[in-house]
C-alpha cells in the first residue's frame, strides 16, 4: 500500500490537554498536509508544510516535519470538545505529484 | 465564497447499475480531484483533472471514469456497480494542480451504497 501510517489509531483526552498525532510516510515529498474529518463528512484542510520547512504553527496547531525520518507530528494545544474528529496526514510526492497520499488517520476524542 | 459542492449527498444503487456524481469546485479553482473512502482501504486517489485534462489516475478499474468541463465542474462515473464500490466519494478542488501551495478544499462527499 502507498499509504502512510499514523499513530496512535485512537486518542482519548480531556478538554484542556494537548493531543499529539504522528505520521510516517514512505517517499520523497514536496509537502505534507494535515486534514480533519468530522463523522465521515468532508475533509477540512488544517495546515501545509513544505519539505524544506521543519516546523509550522497555525493557531493552536503545531506541525513538525523530519524528512530524514520521513515523519511528521501534529500537536493540538488546549484541546476542546469541538476538536473531536479524525485527523489525517497526506503527502504530495516529489515526483508524480497532483495527488494526495493519505495516512490511516487518528481518531481523537476530547471529553468535556 | 461558496465551497466545493457535491451532489447528490446520498445515493443507493443496485449492483450492475451505473452512477454519475457531480462536483462544483470553488470559483477560480482549475484542479478537481476525486477520492474514495472506505473503512477497509481508507482514502484512495481516483483521478485529477486540471483545465479539462486528466493529469493523474489512481489504481482503479476502467469502470471508474471522469471528466471536467470548461467551467471546471467535474463528474465521475462508475459503471457496472459492485458491492465493493459502496463508499464515500470525495471531491477536492485546488487553485494549482497538486495543491502544492494552498492544499485542497474538499466537498462534503457523496455516500454511495450499492445493494
Q: Can you walk through the features of this model?
A:
The complex is a heterodimer of chains A (112) and B (115). Chain A is mostly beta strands. Helices cover 0% and strands 57% of the residues of chain A. Chain A is built from no helices and 11 strands. Chain A has strands at residues 5-7, 10-14, 19-24, 29-37, 43-50, 55-58, 61-66, 71-76, 85-93, 101-102, 106-111. In chain A, the strands form 2 sheets. In chain A, strands 2, 4, 5, 9, 10 and 11 form a 6-stranded mixed β-sheet that branches. The radius of gyration of chain A is 13 Å and the shape is globular. The termini of chain A are far apart. Chain B has 115 residues and is an all-beta fold. Chain B contains no helices and 11 strands. In chain B, strands 2, 4, 5, 6, 9, 10 and 11 form a 7-stranded mixed β-sheet that branches. Chain B has a 4-stranded antiparallel β-sheet with strand order 1-3-8-7, with no helix packed on it. In chain B, a hairpin with a 3-residue loop joins strand 4 and strand 5. The termini of chain B are far apart.
